[in-house]
Specification:
6 helices, globular, 134 residues
């Protein structure tokens, strides 16, 4: 529940400003650490696997000169440490599929859409809802 609220707040920031404030990421980090320390009762390797997915996304951000933004990748790290490996993998896969279809629709339309950026975190939030609640 708290992960979804955090993702929705980040999605609103991403839609409006296309940047995630650093203090919001620190709040998410603190919340994730508190959850993992006091409430997580599963296998420790599950959140670490989710962090690995986020680390791969951070590497992609670095290599592609932020084609996938650092804020997006950091949110994926937080999501991975909260939701675990498989749920994060499914969430990120569905989010990339959704943003890919969205981009394809805009490329097929006439206009100057090639230079626009698409906020990724709303797709991440929708995918997370689908993975967690369906």
């Amino acid at each position: 529940m708290w992960g979804m609220i955090f993702l929705l707040i980040c999605a609103m920031w991403d839609l409006r400003v296309k940047r995630i404030p650093t203090y919001l990421l620190w709040i998410g980090t603190a919340g994730t650490m508190i959850f993992n320390i006091f409430f997580y009762k599963g296998n420790l390797f599950n959140p670490l696997g989710g962090l690995i997915i986020g680390g791969v996304c951070l590497f992609i951000s670095k290599v592609t000169d932020e084609a996938l933004g650092y804020g997006d990748s950091f949110v994926i790290c937080l999501l991975g440490s909260y939701a675990g490996f498989l749920k994060t993998l499914w969430t990120v896969t569905l989010a990339f599929t959704g943003v890919g279809l969205f981009s394809l629709i805009f490329l097929m339309r006439k206009g100057d859409y090639r230079k626009r950026t698409i906020p990724f975190i709303p797709f991440l939030a929708i995918s997370y809802m689908g993975v967690m609640y369906v």
